[in-house]
Write a structure and sequence with these properties.
The chain contains one helix and 18 strands. It has one helix at about 1-20, and strands at about 25-30, 35-40, 45-50, 55-65, 70-75, 85-90, 95-105, 110, 115-120, 125-130, 135-140, 150, 160, 170-175, 180-185, 190-195, 200-205, 210-215. The strands form three sheets. The protein has an eight-stranded antiparallel beta barrel with strand order 1-2-3-4-5-16-17-18. It is elongated and about 60 Å long.
Length: about 220
Amino acid sequence: MLNRYMLAIILFLTTGISSAQIKGTFVYAPGFDGGARTLTFSDLGFTDQSTCHVGVKYGAGSFKIKNDSLYLAYFKLEDKDSSQYKISSEEARYGYTHIYVQSFDGKIPISGSLIALRDQDFNIIFAADAVSEGKASLQVRKQEKISYLTVDFIGYNQVVIPFGRLQGKRSDIFVGFKPQHTLIQPPHIEVYRVIKLEEKKLILQNAAGTELVFAKRGVN
């Protein structure tokens, strides 16, 4: 009987966080010049805004807590100031995907942009630098885990292209970068382990094992 009683207590403690509803605004400030990240949770979903010395990153979506883990599902948001791109494609032989990318600021090629293939959670599977005149070319054979192609350059808005538009084709992509003021988070899912949820504090652990301590705003 005692063992059953103890088991019931353990199950209650381990499932308490998963049944909790996070409400309010939580701020993570890592330190001097590290910027700040603000997560706000409500019945309608969540918003995520980060500030740093290069600008602002913003996202919004739905969330859930399951098995002591917090799932943030970012929606697709429109960004009128986003960098632009044009794609010219034709069918490729043997089912391979061939991608040629060139990046510009206005009419000037930008050398050093990062071309990345990412999975559905936006983790990088493969990346290459566009060195000479902003040009890079990729041939992709193993494609089953790839969900996005992204093109990045520091200080400019990121380009995100669904990989389904490129798969099995030979594509020329021309990117026109625009300076970054607010970077809109692309659709993806982030998962955090909930270490602690209190009245004044929320502690999350990311996939790399780093603990993020958020203070609840408006609580003395």
